[in-house]
Specification:
- With about 100 residues, this protein is an alpha/beta fold.
- About 15% of the residues lie in helices and about 30% in strands.
- It has a five-stranded mixed beta sheet, with helices on one face. Strands 4-3-8 form a three-stranded mixed beta sheet, with no helix packed on it.
- The longest helix has 7 residues.
Length: about 100
């Protein structure tokens, strides 16, 4: 379903980060949501009520389905944040913790 445009893939630099503690890479300029999809992560979070999996949908900040924890701060919209070297991205399970 998700794939990169060939001309962009060939010219972009790689950025290293982690997803749930596992090493991952993305292209410079990718949003966190795009980087998750490119690394095969289709669910960013589970809803607090039903536990249903949610993943990036609109990719423009409207739907809030791409909420993740970035560098310890929860409820960040992955589609609105560019991936950075060394960034720690965590998927969210239910409601975020009070201190995060």
């Amino acid at each position: 379903m998700f794939r990169r445009l060939p001309e962009i893939e060939a010219t972009s630099q790689t950025v290293s980060f982690t997803i749930d503690g596992r090493p991952a890479s993305a292209r410079a300029g990718d949003s966190v949501a795009a980087a998750l999809l490119a690394n095969g992560v289709t669910a960013c979070r589970n809803t607090p009520v039903s536990g249903a999996a949610r993943g990036p949908y609109c990719m423009m900040g409207v739907c809030f389905d791409c909420l993740v924890t970035i560098d310890g701060t929860g409820n960040r919209q992955g589609c609105q944040v560019r991936v950075a070297p060394g960034m720690a991205v965590e998927t969210q399970n239910g409601k975020r913790e009070v201190e995060r």
